[in-house]
């Protein structure tokens, strides 16, 4: 009687997780069919999917946007809170290092004058918007309160990037008005140019939405009157309002569609170019007092 050699049994390959080859898994992703360990499993409508498939699907999902093209976000207005925190931090530094901060960040037309011997420091047109008067606590208190009230509404509506662009353009526009209409040694500080830009931004948004604008018009009117009180730079306020209105119109009146973002940013870029031209023109007109 002869006995044959036992046949060799085929060895089936043990399924392992692609991300963790040391882990055996008999559960497979419903989308790609690969084995997926418990750590890499994500619950799906039917069964589970691997973490890679979930990430790929998330990348392919369209970004939900507001009527003005801003990405829909949840939670706190990050940009608004960051600006407030920055202003408060610089305000504290103004008390700790008053000479250093004021000397390097305050704006006056003489810092953008095309006059030999004078420093040319155009960045002050923006940095001055983050300083406030140390002699009047109400100055920073009002600006930060207004920034919070308007920012938490407008930032999620416009989108974070467009909101900060509009805000900075408004500050710049306020400084340009000081350059064109103020005295050469008229130093200015404060976020009022940016805040007044938010005032007119809300006005433009409400007009575009055909909402009642009486409330914001009253607020703007009151603040225009206050702007002409002694010690207040009405030029920065008016310049910020006008620039904010232009920037808001460039955002709000662009129809929705695939070109919305491109056209909005083109409009904001156009306003920036206009401010560059006005800055150059104003700097060439500044003269020393006789």
From TrEMBL:
Transmembrane segments annotated in the record for this chain: 78-97, 130-151, 163-181, 187-205, 212-230, 236-254, 266-288
Tree of life domain: Bacteria
Keyword set, alphabetical order: Hydrolase, Membrane, Protease, Transmembrane, Transmembrane helix
Subcellular location, principal: membrane
Location in or out of the cell: Membrane
Record InterPro entries: Peptidase_S54_rhomboid_dom, Rhomboid-like_sf, Rhomboid_protease_S54
Pfam families according to UniProt: Rhomboid
Membrane topology: Multi-pass membrane protein
Peptidase S54 rhomboid domain ranges (all copies): 121-250
GO cellular component: membrane
GO biological process assignments: proteolysis
A GO molecular-function annotation: serine-type endopeptidase activity
Family: Belongs to the peptidase S54 family.
Protein name per Swiss-Prot or TrEMBL: Membrane associated serine protease, rhomboid family
Organism of this sequence: Crystallibacter crystallopoietes
């Amino acid at each position: 009687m002869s006995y044959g050699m036992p046949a060799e049994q085929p060895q089936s390959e043990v399924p392992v997780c692609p991300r963790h080859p040391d882990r055996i898994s008999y559960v497979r992703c419903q989308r790609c069919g690969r084995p997926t360990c418990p750590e890499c499993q994500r619950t799906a409508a039917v069964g589970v999917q691997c973490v890679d498939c979930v990430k790929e699907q998330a990348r392919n999902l369209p970004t939900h946007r507001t009527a003005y093209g801003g990405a829909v976000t949840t939670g706190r207005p990050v940009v608004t809170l960051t600006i407030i925190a920055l202003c408060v931090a610089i305000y504290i530094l103004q008390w700790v290092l008053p000479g250093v901060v004021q000397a390097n960040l305050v704006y006056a037309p003489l810092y953008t004058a095309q006059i030999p011997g004078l420093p040319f420091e155009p960045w002050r047109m923006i940095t001055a918007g983050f300083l406030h008067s140390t002699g009047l606590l109400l100055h920073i208190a009002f600006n930060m309160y207004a920034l919070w009230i308007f920012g938490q509404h407008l930032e999620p509506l416009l989108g974070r990037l467009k909101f900060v662009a509009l805000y900075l353009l408004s500050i710049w526009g306020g400084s340009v008005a000081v350059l064109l209409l103020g005295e050469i040694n008229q130093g200015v500080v404060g976020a009022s140019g940016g805040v007044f830009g938010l005032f007119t931004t809300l006005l433009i948004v409400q007009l575009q939405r055909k909402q009642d604008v009486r409330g914001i018009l009253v607020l703007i009117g009151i603040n225009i009157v206050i702007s002409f009180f002694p010690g207040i730079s009405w030029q920065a306020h008016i310049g910020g309002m006008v620039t904010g209105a232009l920037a808001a119109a460039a955002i709000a009146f662009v129809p929705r569609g695939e070109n919305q973002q491109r056209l909005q940013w083109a409009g904001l870029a156009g306003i920036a170019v206009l401010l560059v031209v006005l800055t150059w023109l104003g700097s060439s007109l500044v003269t020393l007092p006789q």
